[in-house]
Amino acid sequence: MIVRLLCCLLLTALVLPALAFEKTITLKDYTGRGFAPDLVQYDVRLSRAEIQKLRLYREDGAPLPVQLMPGEKNGASTLSFVAELPPNGTMTYILRDDGQGKPPVPQVVVAKDGKTQILSNGLLAVRVPAETKQTFKQHIPAKSLPAPILGFRIGTGAWLGGGAMLGDRPVSMCRVTLVAQGSVYVEMRYELDFANGGYYRASIRVVDRVPVALIREEFDVKEQNAPDAWELNVTRGWAPDMMEIAS
């Protein structure tokens, strides 16, 4: 009798599926204006097995892209996805490790193009320098280097604009690094060290379903009356057939 009971318990343990990890994330709008699609990030602690099978769903069951990046905190990862909110409404997102079905095809891509790379999400694209790390024993003027942004385009239209570094300030190091690449967002970091002290840093981020590129800059000029680091000519490539003047 005891042997039969043990066999039944063992069979039950083999047949019953393990309970899947599941978390519900509910966002609510209190502004009355709602929010367009934008990046949302949370710190999470997940095992390697959970990460490999992680899926994100809307409350109606539609799968969404999700991205995990190692976090700065011990054992934590940064969970990223794109959320939106209707005015005075709520949206619920469900995170599971069920691994069911294929995740959505990423719209965010990085494409190499000669000495440049293109960050795109289907709505817009930004051309930036290719990854590099250069140290200059013989310091070179800033204006001889490529700018953080070399051009942009809307959808699959023509390339517009043009970036250029400014000034003769000597540079001792230039580094361009792709710091994030996933199905939710891609991010490039551009760094300069000036030979006479100071630095310039910029990050360019392109996010799924978000129709703008996010640019963050920081710098320490270390001197008074330092020249601007670079410029982006946003008028290049346009062929307008109408002009409006505000009065």
Kindly estimate the percentage of residues that lie in beta strands according to DSSP.
over 45%
Number of strands: 18
What does the main sheet amount to?
5 strands, antiparallel
Distance linking N and C termini = 95 Å
Q: What Rg, in angstroms, do the CA atoms define?
A: 24 Å
Overall mean pLDDT stands at: 86
Shape: globular
Series of H and E elements? HEEHEEEEEEEEEEEEEEEE
Discrete helix count: 2
Give the % helix.
under 10%
Cross-sheet strand order for the largest sheet: 11-14-15-16-17
Structural class: mainly beta
Q: List segments where confidence is low: pLDDT < 50 over at least 5 consecutive residues.
A: 1-19
In words, what does this structure look like?
- There is one protein chain.
- The protein is mainly beta.
- Helices cover 8% and strands 49% of the residues.
- It has two helices and 18 strands.
- The chain has helices at residues 2-15, 48-52; strands at residues 22-28, 35-44, 55-58, 63-64, 67-70, 77-85, 90-96, 109-113, 116-120, 124-129, 132-141, 151-154, 162-165, 170-181, 185-194, 199-207, 213-220, 230-233.
- The strands form five sheets. The chain has a five-stranded antiparallel β-sheet with strand order 11-14-15-16-17, with no helix packed on it. Strands 1-7-3-4 form a four-stranded antiparallel β-sheet, with no helix packed on it. A four-stranded antiparallel β-sheet has the order 8-9-10-12, with no helix packed on it.
- A hairpin with a 5-residue loop joins strand 16 and strand 17 (213-220).
- It is globular and about 60 Å long.
- It starts with a helix and ends in a 14-residue tail after the last strand.
- The model is unreliable at 1-19 (pLDDT under 50).
